[in-house]
Amino acid sequence: MLKTWSFHLPTFVRFGPGLIRKLGELAQEFGWNALLVGYKDQTGMEEVYQRAQRSLRSARMHIFTFFEVGPEPDADLVPRGVEMYKKNRCEVVIGLGGGSVLDVAKAIGALVKMEGVPWDFANANEGHRRITESAPIIAVPTTAGTGSEVTAVAVLSFSGKGRHPDMPLKAALVGEGLHPKIALIDPELTVGKSASTTAACAADALLQAVEACVSRMANPFSTVLAGRAACLIAQSLRTALSQPQDIAARSDLALASCFSGAAYDVTGVTVAHAMAQALGAVFGVPHGLAVAIAGPVALRFLQQTCAEPFAELGRQCHILANTPEEQAGRFLDTVEQLFRDVGLPDKYTIPANAPKDYLDRLVHHALQATPEACTLTPVKVDESVLRDLFQKILSPA
Ligand SMILES: [Fe+2]
Fold first, then answer.
1. DSSP secondary structure string, 300-314?
2. How far does residue 276's CA lie from ligand 1's centre (Å)?
3. Superfamily of the domain at 193-395
């Protein structure tokens, strides 16, 4: 762990069931015209979008909707959102959705102020610039996973870039300007999510938390947040799945997601996320699911080197053992058992139409698109390590 460190959470966090009714009041602080960014397909979420728009209208806000976001959103969406924002003289961007919606909303907010196109700010682009400012952003998550509502990261898919231009490159825009001004976290908005989405998002939040603890940038503040996030997920994920309407369990997951976001925002993530992002780019595996598949194998790879942080996470999850090594092992057993219990897969079956050089593509994506995640891992992550780790999670068709 670092000897000197700092911790900054610039986002104003508003948390509570039913808080969506306050959206209009909060947005009004920035002006009267809002760009509302959301999913293209709002099936099952109609009520959430109606409640948000009702709140904005009752605060006399003018709403300009940009409901264009799908899974693994392409960076080309962002300039279109920027144009709409400027044309309608918007004063605030509101992202209402899961991680992909929040990331697009954050990127739009940033590009309103920064000159250039998304690729200029992508970490996979050598010589990229950091995002230093943005229009006001309000992030309203409808899943409990990425913690994007409090981070200065926005992951987008870039077409025609990198070593394999025939497949998308999933890269992150980074810079303190991406921090939302407000995170409005209403656990009620996650109630309608399916069991599989809830489990995959929780796996993402859990891995972000664990990786925040093992990162070379880990610090005491982020480790406390991450440990609490892990504990909340271990305690409440099963309940959220067996009783989907249980607001207490949903609140625990929403809080865990926010804690894990705040933690990894200062520490970065490590090799499990590098692998997950590659699975997303090469095979289109949704982020949470990709993290659930890559996570356990990546953590076992770090078990010896990271016995201390894993033992600390074990302590925070109330796992008892005689030695730190035993506690570390039991913590990893607990993560694996939880993933099995909630039906998350531990392997990815290679599709029949996969490119022949899929292993090379996965390895190169991890190294090129997520270089920080590789270097923040406390064990050297090179081509041969990645090749070995990917082979452990892939099974033939
Ligand atoms: Fe993640």
1. HHTTTTTHHHHHHHH
2. 8
3. Dehydroquinate synthase-like - alpha domain (1.20.1090.10)
User: 26: CA distance to ligand 1 center in Å?
Assistant: 27
Q: For residue 127, give both structure tokens.
A: 């010589």
The Å distance, Cα 287 to ligand 1 centre, comes to 7
Beta strand pairing status for 62-69 and 92-97? unpaired
CATH class of 12-189: alpha beta
CA distance 204 to 271: 13
pLDDT, tens digit, 9 for 90 and up, residues 320-366 = 899 999 999 999 999 999 999 999 999 999 999 899 999 999 999 99
Measure the CA angle with vertex 231, ends 296 and 307; round to 5°. Answer: 50
pTM over 0.85: yes
Q: Tens digits of per-residue pLDDT, 167-192?
A: 888 999 999 999 999 999 999 999 98
Residue 162 has pLDDT above 80, yes or no: no
Q: Is 145 exposed, middle or buried (0-12, 13-18, 19+ CB in 10 A)?
A: buried
**How far away, in angstroms, is 29 Cα from ligand 1 center?**
30
